[in-house]
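Notebook entry, structure prediction.
Reason for the run: the old model in the group folder had no record of what sequence produced it. Starting over properly, with the input documented here first.
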Amino acid sequence: MTPIDGGCVPSRPSRSARPTILVLLLGLTAYTQAQPPELDYLQHCAGCHREDGSGSARNGVPDMRGILGRFAASEAGRAYLVQVAGIAQSPLSDARLATLLNWMLPRYDAAGTPEDFIPYSAAEVANLRRTRPGDLPAARAHALSQQAGSNAAPNTPTAKETDTP
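New structure, fully documented this time:
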């Protein structure tokens, strides 16, 4: 700090400190972009859904264990998983969200995840994040009924969902 008119303002870093600062900033950027999905889950999801995915019924946070895979079995369910507030409004990139969802499905519902599950792509996540249903509980019920009903949709994203934005 250097005094100016009775106050202090930050001084410029010395020439020897500049390379260190640059290396630290580049390292931080690389770390935040290359973080594994387990850490993204802990940082962005576990606060509400808990580390084990059990959620909190008392607080209206659903248990993901043993049910998450049911959503992956229909187009409406795939959309719902991306459009819930915690995912749709996440600061994570579309690619990191796709990776996170693809990690969560077998982690919290290996038995329920369809054998023919097609992993989310960044393009599909980007397209689905653009809109959110006005009534999420109704969208959840519709997604689950679509999977359970006789007119269950195939477990493939539509061409529109896989097109690049």
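Summary: The beta strands are 2-4, 7-9.
The old model has been moved to the deprecated folder.
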